[in-house]
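#struct-queue
[09:14] JT: dropping the first one here, sequence first, then the structure tokens:
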Amino acid sequence: MARIGRVARALSLTAGVALSGSLVVGGTMSPQAIAARSDAATTHLVGAGSTFDYPFFNLAFAVYGKSQPVSVNYQPIGSGGGIQQFTNGTVDFGATDVPMNSAEVAKAQASGGAVVQLPIALGGVAIAYNLPAVTRVIKLDGPTLASIFMGKITNWDDPAIAKLNPATTFPNQSILPVHRSDASGTNYITTDYLSSVSTDWASNIGKGKSVAWPTGVGGKGNPGVAAAIKQHVGAVGYVELAYALDNNIPYIQLENRDGAYLFPTQNTVRAAAAQYPNVSYKNFSIVNAPGAMSYPITGYSWVLVRQHPKANAGALVPLLRWLATTGQQYAGQLHYVPLPSNVQNQAISALATVK
């Protein structure tokens, strides 16, 4: 995440104003008084949830705050945590890579009224690994990847992996699967994919924000998974693409539904999303999409707001409208795919119901 951090720091420095102590002269306010007045006029919003979204939010909120009197304190605690904080009413908005299900919506409505869920980000999940002895691109198919995460394939020189990579010599190195330790929408997207390509996985483990991983080690958030992969030779895990790129972690080519081996890129994620033009919070899965150019582990992330917010709606709605439209250019800068126009329109329509 080094580059993300550098971008955020640069924005912070650009937006900031260096103040030095001075006295009020001739009725002119001191810089400290001007800063205090400015801060009083600023609306402070609080959000929590998806780590998948964090690089995009980190940059976009900083940009927005340079032109609007709005600051956002967003805590990347995972989709499950975001849903919980939103339900408890401790944040202005939540973010999750899997929309709230009917039971979660009912619980949130009981505690704070009607819920609005709108799409906000689109990206791919990379299968990242740490295997310095192999310099060639590694290819895997869905059933083999599922067997690795189930602990049925335990070594990198396993015949199933060698068969998919005939020109590559793999070391006798044990595989360490790395998964999310927290309730996570990235968990859901990945396990949704594994369930779609492996009946064994679907029958014994299934899909969810939290599942009973049969082997491996857990990391908190995308940052925790990325760190664990970097620390352990032989590790393999799943992270949002930006985390693999910004941590210089290699990732595999994964076989898609049409038999093509693809990296997650903006083009291959966009191609997958194009197969599902009618995506909604009730029909949101876009994994294992058909199409020769469709990357198979792809998903939308969603923002959660109250239909009748108790406070800050006047600042929150314009922020989210900007984030779902103009602000998508900053998603594109960080390896996400800007929301398709029909999905942006869906987000605008959802926000129109917030009073």
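[09:21] JT: and here's the second one, same format:
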Amino acid sequence: MDVAEVLADLLAEQQTLDDIVAELDTAQWQLATPSPGWTIADQIGHLTYFDRNAALAVRDPDAFQDAMHALLGAGTSGDDMTLGPYRAMAPDELLAAWRAGRDELAAAGGTLENETRVAWYGPSMGAKSFLTARLMEAWAHGQDIVDTVDAVRAPTDRLRHIAQLGFITRGWTYMNRGLDMPSTPVRAELTLPSGEVLSFGPDDASESIVGPALDFCLVATQRRHVDDTDLVVSGGAARDWMEKAQLFAGPASDGPAPSSAT
């Protein structure tokens, strides 16, 4: 897939979330979401901060390095830096700021080529992976908002980007926890909304994860426990991965407990 196609899918995913939040009233913007301590406004503020910094990373790598080091040096006050200015905004101001940041990212993303590498928080990323990460963020934080207001967001085949990212970050899940990844190979066969099946991993793997791509993405982004999905997980290593899965950067974290435990 060409970088321009990934960018188009990113913009479509952002617009889908925009269509939901644009209809919220002022009180709804302050509703608590499944992310502890974060309101709907905070979810959009987070996306705004990192969309604008993603644009900066492409447009002015030196300035991005300064911004990155400032954030990484902020420690536990990082939320104040990323969310503070946006928490001071009224919903209409925040929505406008998010849209402006998305426009910046769209313009910067349009200059990327398939071979371009972009500095980010941690190792640099290829252009397609870089934009895929932004798409994943929009979808995952959007899921928190969807869950909070019980909105309808039909799944699309754009999930292919997140599913692939989820599979290739199996090693990161363990490394981020200071653990060795089990050597047992795992195959994933994930069905997109269109019916297309995505296959990852060796054909002869003895362990597998089979089911809807949507469910795999929900687990890998820690928005659902695997037991609350239709995924069929075969094998101890596959099960262990799905219980720990974390495709996003940042400190190791655990997803939600199964609904049966609450």
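[09:30] RK: nice, looked through the second one.
[09:31] RK: Residues 185 and 205 are 6 Å apart (CA to CA).
[09:31] JT: good to know. The first helix runs from residue 3 to 21.
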